[in-house]
Amino acid sequence: MKSTRVNEVNELQSLAKGHVLYFFRNQELYLSHVEEYIITGIKLNEYSVIIENDRLTSMIKHRLSKKLDDHCLQKVVFINNYDFYYAKGDFRVNSIFDYLPKVLDDYSEENAVVRSWAHVEWRDEEEISSKLLASEEEADAIVSDSRILSVCAYDSELASDDFKAGLLACHNYLLCDK
């Protein structure tokens, strides 16, 4: 299912559901958006599943530890993005719902609301753009059907204009830095 219209947003607090695309250029702004996304989710009693690399995960955890107590931090789950995308040996966007049973096993809360943030990184691989676009189309259908809020973040410097246009076609929102 392709999104027909992309709405530009400068913040995520007002969104409750949708498939958000974020092309980032500035690491500090990126980290601020992730932090804001997690804290907003906690205020709404939602779990946040963050798919991120180890280096940025460490920075995000450090920032969150200054603002949230241990009880709140239990609602934030980090998954290494390499493990997530290359679990089958080559690049594949797994459904966040494949991970939820494992992620939420320790929590007895039924009907938990989950939001996701995925930093999509890839190693040099032939046909990666087509794999990514096919996976994003699949993710768009899952997000639409499940009515969750999901952010897909890409380093703007690594994405070609054609690739960016393809990604825009399968997201409802484009997060723009202020």
From TrEMBL:
* Residue ranges occupied by any MEDS domain in the UniProt entry: 19-171
Specify the domain of life of the species encoding this protein.
Answer: Bacteria
- Recorded protein name is MEDS domain-containing protein
